[in-house]
Amino acid sequence: MFLTILKSKIHRVRVTQANLDYIGSITIDEDLMDAARIVSGEKVSVVDNTNGARLETYVIPGKRGSGVICMNGAAAHLIHEGDVVIIMAYALMTPDEVKDFRPAVIFPENNRL
Questions:
Q1: 46 lies in some domain
Q2: Is residue 58 among the annotated active site residues?
Q3: Which of 3, 17, 44, 68, CA to CA, is 20 to 30 A from 95?
Q4: What is the Cα–Cα distance from 85 to 23, expressed in whole angstroms?
Q5: Is residue 109 part of a domain?
Q6: Which residues contact 112 (CB under 8 A, 6 or more apart)?
Q7: pLDDT in tens, 47-94
Q8: How many angstroms separate the CA atoms of 113 and 102, rounded?
Q9: Which of 25, 45, 66, 90 is catalytic?
Q10: What is the CATH number of the domain that holds 77?
């Protein structure tokens, strides 16, 4: 049996851009990705604390140290520049793996570490 467990969380960052004319995804500052142990192309859930929207997409690395959080493509209809979001990634684990696992949870200030 496998359990779906929170692996990574970027808690309460502000969306800096929304780009409808892109093929899709979320762009995240690579420093934030590294700190939260999120990799390029990884599937993430995005929860909008501002309007309640929730969606799943994949991650594209953004410029290090920029603080960029950009909603791309159709997601930009739901989550807008200035909104506060939580970004989460999950992993499948066995019950034994879960016992010693601790997720990477970060609390950036002004979208930076």
A1: yes
A2: yes
A3: 44
A4: 21
A5: no
A6: 29, 31, 32, 65, 67
A7: 999 999 999 999 999 999 999 999 999 999 999 999 999 999 999 999
A8: 19
A9: 25
A10: 2.40.40.20
Residue 25 is among the residues annotated as catalytic for this protein: yes
Q: Which residues, 6+ apart, have CB-to-CB distance to 82 below 8 Å? A: 14, 15, 50
Which of the 8 DSSP states describes residue 39? -
**Token pair in block for residue 19:** 């780009």
- Total domain count for the chain? 1
- What share of the chain has pLDDT > 70, as a percent? 100
List 8, 22, 40, 58, catalytic entry: 58
End-to-end CA distance of the chain: 36
- Residue 111 in tokens: 């979208």
| Contacts (Cβ under 8 Å, ≥6 apart) of 91 | 4, 5, 7
What residues make up the domain containing 41?
Answer: 3-95
Non-local (6+) Cβ contacts of 31 within 8 A are 64, 65, 112, 113
